[in-house]
Design brief:
Strand content: 25-35%
CATH class of the domain at 16-141 and 175-195 and 221-230: Alpha Beta
Number of helices: 7
Radius of gyration: 20 Å
Structural class: alpha+beta
Distance between the termini: 64 Å
Order of helices and strands: EHHEEHEHEHHEEHEE
Number of strands: 9
Length: about 230
């Protein structure tokens, strides 16, 4: 019997996932019109979802926002290292709010270290912190031509994008999470932000319209905007 060689290909079960992987889920819910007379009950129920990390082992964080979009009333953002745990949290959300609201949109994505940026290693601690006043999130996809370019070219283009954002005078305090959705959702990325000022966020985003990386963006909507209920 031949001995196992040092370069033998490992089975899938032997390959460990990146320990820093965190699954993100963003849910949008719309209150049925006939229930708006129960505003106090609605707010009470949705505030309860903030405590899901204490109820479900494995939920890292849950943040709840009142939506500023016409097609949703609440945005719930939660995370876990296990997608099954995310589904467990969704079951609770739907069971407690289903008589009042219907789901209108969702984004599943995975946080991993960016190939273009040295990510902070304290991502889980950041998620657990008290959130900023506003949430901004949107799906994003890129033209196939982007992926056919060599890595060094893409990195040079992304370096300009990152530098433009990081050095903008109105970028102070913006917390960003670039997450990945290749073949697990309808988009390639879900880009999530916490901000204290929508005006400052808008000015930073405006400056990014001038960078070269914009050439390959094919999808950036719907743009979800929410005000924290906490």
């Amino acid at each position: 019997m031949a001995e196992h060689g040092a370069n033998e290909k490992k089975s899938y079960s032997e390959i460990n996932e990146d320990k820093d992987v965190i699954y993100m889920q963003v849910l949008c819910l719309k209150i049925r019109e006939r229930h708006w007379k129960n505003k106090d009950e609605i707010i009470r129920i949705f505030k309860e979802f903030i405590t899901l990390p204490h109820e479900i082992n494995g939920i890292i964080h849950t943040k709840v926002y009142k939506s500023l979009r016409y097609d949703s009333d609440f945005i719930i953002w939660l995370s876990s290292r296990n997608p099954s745990t995310i589904r467990e949290a969704m079951d609770i959300i739907y069971s407690k709010s289903g008589h009042l609201a219907k789901s209108t949109f969702s984004m599943l994505s995975i946080y991993v270290k960016s190939p273009y940026l040295k990510n902070a290693t304290h991502i889980e601690e950041d998620l657990k912190k008290k959130g900023l006043k506003y949430f901004v999130g949107y799906p994003m996809s890129k033209d196939p031509e982007w992926y056919l370019m060599d890595y060094d070219t893409r990195k040079k283009i992304m370096d300009e994008h990152i530098k433009t954002a990081m050095t903008h005078p109105m970028n102070q305090g913006i917390q960003s999470y670039t997450t990945y959705s290749f073949s697990i959702a309808d988009q390639e990325f879900a880009v999530l932000y916490e901000v204290d000022s929508l005006y400052r966020w808008m000015k930073v985003a405006e400056s990014l319209r001038e960078v070269k990386a914009r050439k390959w963006i094919t999808k950036e909507e719907p743009i979800l905007i929410g005000v924290s209920v906490d």
